[in-house]
Amino acid sequence: MGYELQLFGSSSPSGTVTILGLTVALLLTAYRMLRAPGRSKLPLPPGPPSEPILGHYRVVPEDAAFKQYAEWAKEYSTALSAATELLEKRGSNYADRPRFVMFEEYTLVPCLPRKHMADVAQDGLVSNPHLASLGSQVPATDVQSFVHTRMSIWHENVQKGLPNDFDLEDIKGAAATIAIAGNDTTAATLMLLVLYLMQNPEVQRKAQQEVDRVVGKDRLPAWDDIPNLPYTNLVLQETYRMNPLSPLGIPHASVADDAYNGMFIPKGTIVYQNVWAMCNDTSVYADPSRFWPERYLPVGQGGNGEPFPAGNFGFGRRICIGRNLAENSLLIVLATMLATVDIDWPVGEDGRPAPFEPEWSFRGQA
Ligand code: HEM
Asked: Which residues bind heme (predicted)?
């Protein structure tokens, strides 16, 4: 079909990582002003005025704060213009995390080197018997769990009197983080896929036709089929764009003082990425509220040549370690759904499909 298929990459299309909405901790601006007088002659990034005593507590909305941040970004021109500039090019300075108090209370703070955590994402793929059974080349057995493998390394080192670069608390925290970070995210994306396929029957039909053409009717989709399902991949990319699961990303924190575009970013600044604003930027995406997978196709192929969404899996040194696992899992499940079921509106009391407008809740986003 001539579609350009971009699988499993960082989802940052070259040259087009147009970054609009990097929101630098507007919440903390007043606090930083008090803490950092005289540390730099440069001004702090601008933001809305705070209230006496309460600061920005009532200024930042509780619901869908990312929409308000996007408005402020226009008003104050605080689009620090490039998440890639700060979080990727200067990534080492923005690789820290702020405190996640609840995690700490539950002793779930992972200190394992990212390499160990990244191995897990790979292990997870081959040790999941459901996924393994779909792809004949993937062994379904003989792969021990993440915790088991790290415990063995730890134990072996202890017995040999060798130092360990992580302890049991780290293993516990890392395992919990992976479970928390990997489960709901993949499940929520699947729910969104079902919703968008239901709302867009013509997209569903087109994707089903692609799967039927490539896979045939006598077997289920397998890993080898995925690179031959470019439209199915566009459906997934459009699902990411329509609804970034973390509209403001997961906050990073800066390690040292920095200056950017004439503004001072003090050490310890909490940096959010307004992924929602990037995905809804009308200068990049035509009619962004429309579910239109073809938008990524070149103009010559009936599309709009728009870039794949950037930032849904984060940025820089903290980018999601499970993104390849997530993308592979989602594509094989999506292809299997397309091959096996028609997704339609639930049946109403009169026995006919009853379309509805879903209600969205964005509470809890900083
Ligand atoms: C659709 C699925 C997923 C989405 C949208 C997603 C998104 C994200 C985002 C936005 C971050 C923060 C990145 C940053 O701070 O720059 C993150 C971090 C993380 N993700 Fe995912 N994720 C997904 C699936 C998974 C899976 C399947 C796993 C593991 C098996 C996983 C493990 C992690 C871990 C451990 C981190 C923390 C990395 C760090 O702090 O260094 N994620 N993810």
From this structure: 320
